[in-house]
Design the sequence.
């Protein structure tokens, strides 16, 4: 009943770089592709980004701080979406629904919860549009990781007769295995951009390493790389997920200070080179171990714009074609926001949005809380 109608997707990820908003019309029948898409990105202002970053770790008066931040995320989302609607000549009130991710500040499915900050009621009030959010909690309640949720969307778009892998490199990295003879699988692989972004911000005051140029000018330090790869996350079998609780700047600084094989301080640029290799090698290991025989790697997320990172992935996976999702019809930075628009459609259709083989949930579940306009 919703085929051909406009849905919105709003995504702000672990990188804390801002919000990607899309307006999407899905092909008919629902879930079989994208008929039309418009996109807008809006960075977080410094105050909001810093508030969200502080909430990544325990602190004083968290209930008030988190509630105020959830309101500010809703306001930021609404401003971003309304600007996109105006530029496209589409009324927000005419949308079937908004699928909104919210901002993850805690992800601890092993304790039975995950928190994506967003005041869904306020977002519905500000836009005059139904809002589907809190999309991970139902899967966690069913014993799942609550992440990654995008593999079902990847399958809807890119399942084919060819064995392929979709790698999303945002703050964290995750993969989806699409094989014509096997069920869809996927899981978080480890850090994506989060450590590289944190290190270049600390050392050079930059938000990210453009094209990986700084990393490419340094030398990988094998001892540090081995030390980073000792993180117990890499010994876990899928289904699994990770977040800043596992990989963040304090963890990196601790690793730098505790490497028993490093006699002298490292050059900053060599740390950056090693972090890029850390992301590339752990993702490639996941592909080799869990998606053997795949012919093509499609990369999306912000990491798809890091030429050095893509080159390192290609070096680790010489038997695979490494390219971005842009070569298959959808820009890398549009994919996750479009996935949450698709999840909103699934919610209105009362269709499952998770894949138990990916998240570990006890079964398929309809995801998301619905806030009426």
Sequence:
């Amino acid at each position: 009943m919703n085929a051909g109608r406009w849905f919105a997707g709003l995504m702000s990820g672990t990188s804390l770089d801002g919000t990607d908003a899309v307006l999407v019309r899905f092909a008919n029948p629902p879930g079989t592709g994208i008929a039309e898409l418009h996109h807008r990105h809006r960075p977080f202002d410094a105050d909001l980004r810093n508030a969200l970053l502080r909430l990544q770790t325990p602190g004083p008066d968290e209930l008030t701080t988190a509630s105020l931040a959830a309101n500010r995320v809703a306001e930021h989302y609404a401003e971003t979406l309304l600007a996109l609607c105006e530029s496209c000549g589409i009324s927000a009130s005419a949308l079937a629904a908004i699928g909104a991710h919210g901002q993850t500040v805690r992800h601890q499915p092993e304790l039975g919860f995950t928190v994506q900050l967003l005041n869904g009621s306020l977002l519905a009030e500000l836009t005059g549009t139904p809002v589907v959010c809190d999309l991970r909690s139902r899967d966690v309640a069913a014993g799942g990781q609550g992440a990654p949720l995008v593999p079902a969307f990847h399958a809807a778009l890119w399942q084919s007769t060819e064995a392929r892998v979709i790698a999303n490199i945002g703050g964290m990295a995750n993969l989806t295995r699409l094989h014509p003879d096997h069920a869809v699988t996927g899981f978080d692989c480890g850090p994506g951009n989060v450590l590289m972004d944190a290190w270049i911000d600390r050392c050079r005051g930059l938000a990210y390493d453009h094209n990986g140029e700084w990393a490419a000018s340094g030398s990988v330090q094998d001892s540090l790389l081995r030390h980073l790869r000792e993180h117990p996350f890499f010994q876990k079998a899928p289904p699994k997920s990770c977040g800043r609780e596992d990989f963040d700047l304090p963890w990196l600084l601790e690793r730098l200070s505790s490497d028993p094989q490093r006699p002298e301080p490292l050059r900053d640029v060599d740390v950056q080179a090693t972090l890029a290799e850390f992301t590339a090698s752990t993702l490639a290991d996941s592909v080799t171990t869990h998606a053997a025989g795949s012919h093509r790697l499609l990369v999306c997320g912000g990491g798809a714009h890091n030429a050095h990172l893509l080159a390192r992935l290609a070096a680790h996976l010489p038997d695979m074609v490494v390219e971005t999702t842009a070569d298959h019809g959808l820009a890398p930075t549009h994919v996750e926001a479009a996935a949450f628009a698709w999840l909103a459609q699934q919610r209105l259709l009362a269709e499952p949005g998770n894949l138990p083989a990916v998240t570990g949930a006890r079964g398929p579940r309809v995801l998301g809380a619905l806030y009426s306009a």
Q: What stands out?
A: The chain is about 40% helix and 20% strand. Residues 6-147+334-371 form a domain with the Nucleotidyltransferase; domain 5 fold (CATH 3.30.420.40).
